[in-house]
Amino acid sequence: MARVDADPLTRPDGSPIRVLTVDDEPSLTELLSMAMRYEGWEVSTANSGNSAVRAARENHPDAIVLDMMLPDFDGLEVMRRIRQDQPDVPVIFLTAKDAVSDRINGLTAGGDDYVTKPFSLEEVIARLRALLRRTGATTARADSLLVVGDLSLDEDSHEVTRGGQRISLTATEFELLRYLMRNPKRVLSKAQILDRVWNYDFGGQANVVELYISYLRKKIDADREPMIHTMRGAGYVLRPSE
Predict the structure, then answer these.
(1) pTM of the model
(2) What are phi and psi of 55, to 5 degrees?
């Protein structure tokens, strides 16, 4: 299998990326693990919800590939339990379900991406690499800082501040804010945001965008001059506060 991207991803300190793979099908877990090890990553595996929570606490993964259906409890509950200790760890859900409603349930519950079975290993690796880049998996660069007004975002360290105050975001919230900050004063439609942040079509399910815009507003604009504005019938725009 060819490497998806020639540029190796490492943690900021140069150590290997750590990924937890959770699925109750041993053959699938082994295939995913082989693909990830080929990328130079360290992989831990689990085949149930309880073992996944235990492995996450022991290994502190940088990302989790998580089957939605497990023998003891479902992937949503696994994610909730893991995020009690590691609130920012990104999660990609795996599932045999392909209905739009299932995708939305996984994402609105806090998942960062969603891949339906059957899938190609290359697709999972590509999505993992994109997700890891969002969360600061690579060494910081001097040109990684975005600044709009008193809001700043470091694309590599995943640090966001407004007025010097640190703001904690999930991986998806971070990607949404980054897209807004890369296009300040530009109105972005819901369709554009869906395509850029989630990378696939939800069949008009723009309520996902509305939901995450509301999450961002609570963190970015809370008790401050608003920066994220709704343009009725057009989309959203980020502007420096006056």
Answers:
(1) 0.56
(2) -65, -40
